[in-house]
Amino acid sequence: METDGTYESRDTKGGAVPRPAGPPPSFPPPQGPPPVPHTGQTVPAPQTGTGPRPAAPPLVPPPPTHAPARLGVAEWLRIPRPAAAPGIWRLGHRERPEREPELVPGRQLITGAFVAYLSGWLLWSLLWNGYLEGGWIFVDEWWLLPMLWLVPSDWRNPGSPDFEAYIGALYLWYAIILILFAVGFGRVGNWREIWQRYGVPVWPLFVLLPGVWREMPRTLTWLTWVSNLYYVLLAAALVAAVGRAGTWPPVRRRFGTGGAQAPAPPPPVPPGADPAEWPELRDAGLAEAAARLAEATRQGALGDVDYARIQRAWQGVRARPERLAAFTDTVRTRGAAACGHPSGLRDLPVRTATHDLATGQVLIGTAADHPRNPYARRTTGVALEPGVLGTSLLAVGPAGSGKTVRLVRPVVETLCLQALANRVAVVTVTTQGAALGPDEAFDVVVSVGRRESTHDLDLYGGADDPDEAARVLADALVGDLVADSRRAATALAQLIGPFLAAYGRFPGVPELRELLGGAPDALAALRAAVAGDSAQLRELDARQRQADRGDDVGTLLAERITFLDRPAFADFFRTESGPGGHGEGGGRPKFSLRAIEHPLRVRVDLPERGHVEASRIVSRLLLAQFTEAALARRDRSLFACLVLDDATHTVTADSVRALQRLRSANAGVLLALRSLEDVPEALREPLLGSVGCRMAFAGIAPWDGGRFAEAWGTEWVQTRDVTNRQIVADEPLTKALHVMRRLVTGRAATAEAVTVREVERQRWSASDLAHAVPPGHAVLSLTHVRGEHVPPLLVDLRS
């Protein structure tokens, strides 16, 4: 149960699943929120061999040092994650309206508000100064009658003891009239939108500015206090209006005095549905296990990786109920460290991106507030997840556009975190020195061409069938030169099959080079070794007949494999097996892509300098082996992903066809290219059609943008055509007015005719992709494995 049943290899030779490259690093005490107590226990170093590991007491690894930023795990779990379209960052997401509300232009809004303000003030001034009394309606002070009806007449006498109450009622009535004016003219002038858009308090200013308050008598004690309060409120309203107009909030934000509002707290969680209390375990009757995990969550000993890993184990239990007892026992014994990764690690040493392991998403940017983006998607977070990467992603952008830093590294980081949660197997192919994470973040690091590499690379990808091995190797050697590699695969199979029958293993690089080059001694020795096998002799005879032809593909294969038969690679690609599946002498274990059935984190460093062609051959070899291994998996519960940081001259016809089949195998590939010119011309359009996610970075060439524009298609948009027509007047007065207007403005009198129609237009044209995408941005379209599609969005990768 510790491994959730996902680590049993179907390799009978041993050594197909390499152990981590070294022991996990020691963890310092955690710093910052959430507070995590130190357990005081250590982690035993994992075994580097392939034999059974000795039994050890269930020690608890140190708690993770990277929890969700600024939040405890319990608070992080309580943040709502509503269902959303693919690519939307679901953590705390709030839906936006589908259509943009029609806003009044700022100049028109301010003008209307100011006119309404003046109109209201004019009406109040007319009332206050008595211009709307007497001869107008034959009643003096008619607007005071309701108040006078309610107040006894003897209160109006200055000598009355209730005269103070009369003064208070009078000014209260003034306030009621002003407030009614403010409400009426505020609706006419749209003062509410002025407040929402600019923050200017128009209503208080309208009520407080009239001079009636300054004429308030100060002979009475309480009226003196009311007058002082009036001046305080008037000063506050003026300061608020002037401060907002003078952009004081940005100044406060700049100096850190709290100009920005704090995010609203998440809504309260209903009783019994708090994810931090593990309700799914309680509902299944595992109250003790749920209590143990809930306590670890509250104390901070359980991290986000632990939560995702235990949830993955619980899903396995629901699929196979016979594991329930083992799951309960390991949770009771190990708590937050239950069902751990084989490496013993519970987090990565460094995180550079924002992750939400509850949904498996990584935040890569924000949808720009741009007219080309749908209004509902503007300013929302853009995230990638296994469901999206399962359709494969092609990213094209020039050097320095941010492919590695803003796309590849966050994706690799989230896949490594999910691998620690036993959900993903990731293989990253990059050049030596690329900043995709430290060596401690990976279980296996294969540095091709470097003596300090801890692992060798299996040239045949763990294949047992010579035809399968020949097909994969032929695609790697000549897939970028020929449209159909079947002839090359046949030529290789005619040599690999007899060699396997004779020696029980596949040929190494030097041996295969000699056989392809037609070395007499090597061919004679092989023929003698299979002299008793007529089928293998026929294979060798057929190879000999093809070698005598002038268009034999074996010559090309021999030339291409020469790039791998160099002194720098003398210790790599060995096929001699030592004890435990290691290379010759058992000194260096071999890594095979068949291991993607297990939650491994693998990084392959290619020797870019001086061995460019060899690096490209190895890249094609890994791509071909990955697609073959992903499609051949029997257990496809793990998401498998291959990340190619530089896929230059890596794509072949066979790999394009294989990409289309990876969706059903719960696997995907991320390809990063500087230009589509690095792909054979016949494969550029099929490649764009085979991937579900396409990403064009700022600065791509117009011819690359044209292919993206064709792939993204067109949409119906509404256009407005404005036509100006000169007005010809017949009447003398109208002619005179037109002549005067022309003398003043310099333009003839015209009339506008507006035509609204719907036209079909490209979503993003080649020119827009080449010249209108700002630096640090990219245009991204997504497709989920369920078939949901997201049109291209302009994404700000810097936010």
TrEMBL record:
InterPro entries: P-loop_NTPase. Residues 1-65, 255-275 are annotated as: Disordered. Residues 20-37, 54-65, 263-273 have a biased composition (Pro residues). Keywords: Membrane, Transmembrane, Transmembrane helix. The chain crosses the membrane at residues 109-128, 163-183, 220-243. The keyword Transmembrane applies. This is ATP/GTP-binding protein. It comes from Streptomyces bikiniensis.
